[in-house]
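ZP: hey, is the HDE complex queued? I don't see it on the tracker
AM: it wasn't, my bad. submitting now with these inputs:
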Amino acid sequence: MNGDGSTGGQGRDGQGDDLASKDGQSKNADLAQFRESPQGEFLTSNHGLRINHTDDSLKAGDRGPTLMEDFHFREKLTHFDHERIPERVVHARGSGAHGYFQVYEPLAEYTRARFLQDPSQKTPVFVRFSTVVGSRGSADTVRDVRGFAVKFYTEDGNFDLVGNNIPVFFIQDAIKFPDVVHAIKPEPHHEMPGASSAHDTFWDFISLTPESMHMIMWLLSDRAIPRSYRMMQGFGVHSFRFVNAQGKARFVKFHWKPLLGTHALVLDEALKIAGKDPDFHRRDLWEAIERGDYPEFELGVQLVEEADEFKFDFDLLDATKIIPEEVVPVRPIGKLTLDRNPDSFFAETEQVAFHVGHVVPGIDFSNDPLLQGRLFSYLDTQLLRLGGPNFQQIPINRPVVPVRNNQRDGFHQHKIVKGRVAYSPNALASNSPMPAAEEQGGYVHYAEKVEGRKVRRRSESFGDHFSQATLFWNSLSLPEKEHLVEAAHFELGKVEAREIRMRMVELFNRVDHQLATLIAEGAGVPAPTGSAVKNHGRSSPGLSMENTAKRTIKGRRIAILAGDGYNSAELLAVRAALQAAGAVTHVISKFLGPIKSSGGEAVEVDKSAITTGSIMYDAVYVPGGKASVDTLLLQGDARHFVNEAFKHCKAIGATGEGVNLLLQSDITGVPLADQGSDGRVIVAKGVVAAREVSNPQAFAQRLIEAIAQHRDWSRAEKVQVPA
Ligand code: HDE
């Protein structure tokens, strides 16, 4: 190492080229020096002194005052007093995971980014999923946008793709960001509601900001209440640029698609889970990774030639617009796998600092005014949140390549740089560290031609705020449309000012007349008398989650309700089949501990009824066994479980006497009463039931098919079910 460059601290000098290695382990190795687990070690002070007693302060006599000289007491308390850092202004609540990314084939034709060239190379990544509105301790399942931020530790430095699970945004210009965030955050006089858009100030702002209407359609859709972080899409939102080694640029939009399919909760479930398990998404992600069920997402790109920039009926620089997949297909380019949970929430998930400006050669920006504003904001926010300009030296933020420059000092500087030269140009250190030419990996901004007058105004090409909102509405399936209207009833139902509700209905009327009429009905305001615009009738199938669902039960949670006297053959066979198909099963009973089957075998209860509920499962199965089912019949909770699962359109299975529980619940519209003892399996509306089970495996197969549908929306009777 050259004595006048930086040494120690950051990066591993001289090894830059192989750090984002084929096996993706180097980042782990790089961070290993920072990981400690003090088992079996002595307790010390922060200056390394072994501490001999930490449970009593130093006092003058047993009952005397605490002494000033108790440095251990003061250090321990002072450090504790300073444990908190400011939470993120937005996206405060998050969950992180480590993993790796692999490209499918070399992309040299489109980009010179080195991590996108070699399919055998694993680039380490850290991902942080988040909600936007709530504070750090808020519930996971509220209606909200989800952040999907990915840090790629590449051999060219870090690339951060800081996206959301919704492909558009509320506003077109970053200067409006403080306004939209102030409007959606808890109202400042009483700090309510804690983490929800359902209040006056948000809808007041929206009703006066028509550019937000496309985003509002997504926010009211099921996308805003995902089933799991493992089952949601991600989007880079803005148009970025790919630039190849020849300097040719193309616009690019980034898409993440979950391999488990895109799935959502229903509103009632999301609201209830927020109380029963506020950590629902965090836990789901953590547990999936712990059991080796690694979440996977395919990265896709939409590429647009520079020459085609003006061929669309919207502006590519307008972040309230998508490029429909039918117009420009999404081309899959690689896969992200999340295979390791963080060791320390604070050190990793809380201290990770994403910045849209962290790019690598081959990836560049567009002039989207929202993106341009973000390029300022992310760096600025980290300075405050992480306490100064050296936040990139925090282990989770360190690139895997060396960092050398003439920046010096500042709070928490970890590097000890040798030499007296901290300026450029210099002759005393042979002008090092020196700029790299483009062919040496130096980042050169794409030389886009720009000219114009200084103006503080919006481009006319950003003027259409409704066509794509209508496109979204037209593309939804009927259940999705019903859910959107229900969500609007919930949100506007909490808005006290009638004039805000009226203004919103007027805006919805510019999206679609039927939509506005349905919303008005629940919002207590008159329906609009006529359509404000004619619906253009276009749709884009990719926008409906129905078309992105994958028919698998992998990673789904299935509840098995049982008590003493259960039928062991049925329970074990069905459970084994569900597990073999990749599902997670939990035996639920009144109390923890073992329960005994009718034949005397025992099975361990995974969850006691009081700690859980149907809302935390994707399906429920009730095995037979007279005594077991008779006990369940006496428990209101068990009937409620079945009712609620039915109401939420989930798959329900029952065998033997288990069918009695379904008959005694309020499930209607399923011909269960016809069940004779001929062993027929009845499959109706996602309910799979059989009195006599000669072949439990075959039964399990039918149940698996029903669960793989995710929900059976055909249950019109669900509204009559009390749950
Ligand atoms: Fe952010 N955003 N944002 N944002 N954003 C932040 O940075 C900002 C926007 C997104 O897990 C902040 O470190 C402005 C769009 C994610 O750490 C802050 C604008 C998209 C995360 C900030 C936007 C995002 C943030 C707060 C309007 C999707 C969490 C704390 C121009 C493409 C990252 C922080 C994490 C976080 C500013 C709009 C995604 C204040 C000014 C559009 C996923 O810098």
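AM: back. Residues 88-91, 94, 128, 130, 147, 149, 162-164, 169, 174, 177, 237, 319, 354, 370, 373-374, 377-378, 381 surround HDE (CB under 6 Å).
ZP: great, adding it to the tracker
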